[in-house]
Amino acid sequence: MIEGKQIFFTYGFAETDKNPVLNYVDLQIPDGQIVGLFGENGAGKSTLLRLMAGLLVQKDRGCQILLDGKPATQVRGEIACIFEEGTFLPDLTPKQYGDFLADFFPKFDRAYYDKLTAFFKLEEKAAKHMSRGQKAKLEIAAGLAKRTKYIFMDEPFLGKDALTRQDFMKILSGSLTGEETLILVTHELESVETFIDRAIVVHKGKLAADVEMDDLHHEGKNLMVLLKETVGYDENAYRDLFAEEE
């Protein structure tokens, strides 16, 4: 389980920043749940994701995020991060990267990793010489092959064409056993509409909406409707651009 209490984060000084990225929010995510974090650019989605993964440090000592009762830094072997920026080890080839991961992740599935890199047709060259899309595929292969309990994904569809997105969703669905807790940030609402269990909308430093997908669909709504209603999106705001001057 992921438990966050009074989560606060600012890129300025905590004592003086009047518009923090995250403003003392509470969050609880049970084991095995697939959660989507949504919101406008700059809303704090990726910051929240990185805080949960232990990649950012909170500046307020009263804040706390625990994974199974422990800070993320104490359960690194149970965390997989699949982020848009790609591998943190750009000098390694796919084979070398697999060797490295096998040493650090106890449940790393090397056979599955090799199958995924072959499926994605990744060449045996350093990641820094790969295209953006190839780097993303390498991270997908690495992240899923770690077989961790917690999977954090930030814009996993960015830069991928429609067919690759479709393949990715099939691979992701087939890779999960139901015991993993998966948190993802994406703007591709349609791609995850039927995949996630729960949707959270981050808006102005707060968790402005938190709903189970079954309940949302029972109300006859989808993710786009939820997002628009939560952030107060004005469908007709653009009309002012074309209004004739009086």
From TrEMBL:
<keyword id="KW-0813">Transport</keyword>
<dbReference type="InterPro" id="IPR051782">
    <property type="entry name" value="ABC_Transporter_VariousFunc"/>
</dbReference>
<dbReference type="Pfam" id="PF00005">
    <property type="entry name" value="ABC_tran"/>
</dbReference>
<keyword id="KW-0067">ATP-binding</keyword>
<dbReference type="GO" id="GO:0005524">
    <property type="term" value="F:ATP binding"/>
</dbReference>
<dbReference type="InterPro" id="IPR003593">
    <property type="entry name" value="AAA+_ATPase"/>
</dbReference>
<protein>
    <submittedName>
        <fullName>ABC-2 type transport system ATP-binding protein</fullName>
    </submittedName>
</protein>
<keyword id="KW-0547">Nucleotide-binding</keyword>
<feature type="domain" description="ABC transporter">
    <location>
        <begin position="2"/>
        <end position="229"/>
    </location>
</feature>
<dbReference type="InterPro" id="IPR003439">
    <property type="entry name" value="ABC_transporter-like_ATP-bd"/>
</dbReference>
<dbReference type="GO" id="GO:0016887">
    <property type="term" value="F:ATP hydrolysis activity"/>
</dbReference>
<dbReference type="InterPro" id="IPR027417">
    <property type="entry name" value="P-loop_NTPase"/>
</dbReference>
